[in-house]
Amino acid sequence: MNDPQSYPPVFRRRRQTSNGTIHVDEGGGGGGKPEEAAAVPVIDLERPDVEKLREAGREWGFFRLVNHGVPEPLLEQLKTHAADFFAQPFDSKQALFSSGGDGTASYFWGTPILNSSGRTLDKSAQEINWVEAINLPLSSSQLPATCHHPSLQSFRTLVGEYGKHMGRISRTVADAMGKLASLECGDYVSEPTGIIRVYRYPQVPPQQPADGMQAHTDSSVVSIVLQDDQVSGLEFLKNDVWVPLEPVPNTLVVNIGDMMQAISDDEFRSVKHRVKVKKCKEDRISICYFVFPGEGQIMESSKYKPFTYREFQQQVQEDIKTLGFKVGLERFKRLPVDPPATKLTASLIN
């Protein structure tokens, strides 16, 4: 069990009972039906099955990726370094990243919602998410000036190597899906926009149920998740049922983002997903890669008004600030065109 001093203070307070002990419930939460979880499409990146990929994009929005070419030792080293970082005292982690949030790496907790500079947008007590994370933009090889800790420098080297694999995989996936939709989807993958976020979902006491991450869609073209091998939690929505994506060693999970849905004219779906914190004796670590279009890239679609990714990002942030949640693609839907008869009737009346 991790030292409670490694958790952000609000998590420690919520974990304490009146006598100062910490409760751990060994039960687990469930999502959808086991057969649905087992049926999540599996795509072999070396020999992708076109029809299975089409089904994954249209019907699921998620799929598992095997034979992805990322060395297993690299995956294990990443998870080990991530766990070692999060095990440090909370104050030490904050001090290491005190100058973050300017496009370099940053440390945050309580919310997964960041602006383009890496600063958190919202951290209200009512909407606290049971998560802490580091945000690592791949376009910057720099850690904040305060981050001279040797373990972080070696971790950054591993992340850079992993990021190269993620760029290759995301472009391969986007190109393959583009061929299915007769589009050049790979043109919308801007590798310099790539971000890796490393999450820890601390253990949760039974008296304080919490979401690790609330239901949302990703704004990316595609997102790629390296799950914890031991602790589950990722769930996605299918036919109004939450389906758990149980961890499978040496596989990656790919989910389709809002930008892929837009440029494919809704051929492929960006589905809602969430992370439920399991009541077990282990924290959960996941490593997520997100890739976006360039900020000025125009999204062309018959279903949506033309917009740049910058405009989309600004609208999402405005909605979160004013409404408290992301509206997303609905903001950019084309208005239905009135049929000619309706227009003629209106002109006669006037």
From TrEMBL:
Pfam families: 2OG-FeII_Oxy (PF03171), DIOX_N (PF14226). SUPFAM superfamilies: Clavaminate synthase-like. Keywords: Iron, Metal-binding, Oxidoreductase. It comes from the Eukaryota. Residues 1-36 are annotated as: Disordered. Coiled coil: none annotated. Gene3D superfamilies: B-lactam Antibiotic, Isopenicillin N Synthase, Chain. InterPro entries: DIOX_N, IPNS-like_FE2OG_OXY, IPNS-like_sf, Iron_ascorbate_oxido_reductase, Oxoglu/Fe-dep_dioxygenase_dom. Belongs to the iron/ascorbate-dependent oxidoreductase family. This is Fe2OG dioxygenase domain-containing protein.
